[in-house]
Write a structure and sequence with these properties.
With about 500 residues, the protein is mostly beta strands. About 10% of the residues lie in helices and about 40% in strands. It has 3 domains: about 130 residues, Sandwich (Immunoglobulin-like); about 150 residues, Immunoglobulins (Immunoglobulin-like, Sandwich); about 140 residues, Immunoglobulin-like.
Length: about 500
């Protein structure tokens, strides 16, 4: 019995040889074979893709290396693994490229390959395959055998095709005038710019402050809904052909959103294997109307097609920013740690760049220490808080914050003068974001940093040209004797101890 992916590969290969009319179910991956036995032996599964396209011109492969990855899932330890490749079936189609972890055994068609066994995930072998010059569509078979301590040899094969379908998506900006909570249809147009037909089409949408409404049944979301991937049943796209995705996906703008990010891409089955983050979470399937390829609508003359398209946009929103001041009391000459900051009261998020806090230091104090992150310094990034003037009387702190988040900064201030005039804290959005984020309550954007200087103020230093110069010099000399005497007594005590 042939598995679902087996039917799909049969359909693709048949089409390449002109045996069109074979329609595949085009379903998900199924295990292609297992090795293992009863007892304590490790069970191994072959997760390698069954069809691989080797580009005739590597530059056409989206800048990617023409590598086939053999993947082996395993339950239990995998000790002493090795993979042997038999390239006899690739004659006239493709060859193993130089480099990588595979070495040819003499002049034979057999290669020995090292196996990478990470702490998590599949054991893998990366095989560089280069298509030989000639007509696209030639097919061959790469056979491989995995051996390891304590398991039965696992044998598998992959169909290799010379040439590739290369799918591109059209740039299409979302409609204008969108607001928080708006729902819109995102147009997706796909074109095959490769030299072989695509049998099976994948779509991917990366969403930030967006969600898919009525998720189609051939799509699923991961990463908390921020990633949607779709597999189109039986979709075939010939070289040079353009098609439109129907129905266009319905997307909803997050009511708290401001800076909206949308990225979408497409690829043909067998040309790309996306990396799934370890924290992607369990996929959530949809139950809406499935996506399909149809005849495209009007294509603008200046339309641009690329492997991936970015379509960011902004929507106007409101959020209340509240400044947090503090009070400072102490004798002149003492230092105090103070905490200032702000709160993001929401309801919306902030735009790119976050918010900007301006701290005006009280005239009677000096800054001895500001917030400092050594990691930012090592990475050659600016500190969150930086002085805005040479005298360090004004400081600017910039960073983002989610709705409901409190942001605090610790400064060490020294009370330098008996001057109780207050300083201030002012919070606002940067000028570049003011178009998109407004504050409904500007009255709480400024807070006071009060200062109460106690004790005696230090006597002012006399001017150098004062008439009391000789007397002061004498006093200074006497003071010098006293200080030196004190030092001598201190040293004598330390030595006599």
């Amino acid at each position: 019995m042939v598995g679902r992916r087996g039917w799909w590969v049969a359909a693709a290969v048949a089409a390449l040889f002109g045996l069109s009319g074979v329609q595949a179910p085009y379903g998900g991956a199924v295990p292609r074979g297992e090795a293992g036995s009863a007892g304590e032996r490790t069970e191994v599964r072959d997760n390698t893709q069954e069809l691989f396209y080797a580009a005739l011109d590597p530059k056409d492969a989206d800048g990617e290396d023409p590598h086939l990855t053999l993947g082996f899932g395993h339950e239990g330890p995998l000790t002493g693994p090795e993979v042997e490749l038999d390239t006899t079936g690739l004659r006239g189609v493709a060859e193993v490229a130089d480099g990588g972890g595979c070495e040819r055994r003499g002049r034979t068609a057999v290669y020995a390959c090292a196996v990478d066994v990470p702490s998590e995930g599949d054991a893998t072998v990366v095989v560089g395959l280069k298509a030989l010059p000639g007509k696209p569509g030639r097919t061959g078979t790469l056979r491989y055998t995995l051996t390891a301590d304590g398991i039965a040899p696992l044998r598998g094969s992959t169909t290799v095709v010379a040439g590739r379908p290369e799918l591109r998506v059209m740039d299409a900006a979302p409609p204008g005038g969108l607001k928080p909570g708006s729902v819109f249809r995102q147009r997706l147009v796909v074109r095959n710019e490769g030299d072989l037909p695509a049998h099976g089409v994948h779509l991917s949408l990366s969403l930030d402050d967006l969600s898919v409404r009525a998720l189609p049944s051939n799509c699923r979301t991961t990463e908390g809904g921020r990633k949607a991937t779709c597999r189109l049943d039986g979709a075939v796209l010939a070289p040079g052909q353009t098609a439109e995705v129907t129905p266009a996906p319905a997307l909803k703008v997050d009511p708290k959103g401001v800076s909206i990010a949308l990225q979408y891409s497409a690829w043909a089955e067998g040309t790309y294997v996306p990396v799934v983050p370890y924290n992607a979470g369990k996929p959530r399937p949809g139950d809406g109307t499935p996506l399909r390829l149809t005849r495209p609508g009007r294509i603008p003359e200046n339309a641009a097609f690329a492997r991936s398209q970015d379509a960011p946009f902004h929507v106007p929103n409101k959020t209340d920013l509240q400044a947090r001041g503090t009070s400072l009391r102490g004798d002149v000459g003492t230092g105090k740690i103070v905490t200032i900051g702000w709160r993001q009261n929401g309801p919306s998020e902030l735009a790119d760049g976050g918010a900007e806090l301006v701290f005006e230091v009280p005239p009677g104090a000096d800054v001895e220490a500001a917030p400092y992150d050594h990691e930012r310094d090592e990475e050659m990034h600016d500190q969150v808080c930086e002085p805005a003037d040479a005298g360090k009387r004004t400081w600017v702190c910039k960073q983002p914050a989610d709705a409901g988040e409190d942001v605090r900064y610790e400064f060490t201030l020294r009370i330098a003068r008996k001057d109780s005039r207050p300083g201030s804290v002012r919070i606002s959005v940067p000028d570049a974001a003011a178009e998109w984020v407004t504050d409904p309550d500007p009255a709480n954007d400024v807070a006071e940093v009060s200062l109460e200087a106690t004790g005696e103020a230090p006597a002012p230093k006399p001017a150098p040209d004062s008439d009391d110069g000789p007397a002061l010099w004498a006093a200074a000399a006497g003071g010098g004797v006293i200080v030196l005497t004190g030092v001598a007594i201190l040293v004598r005590r330390r030595f006599s101890a």
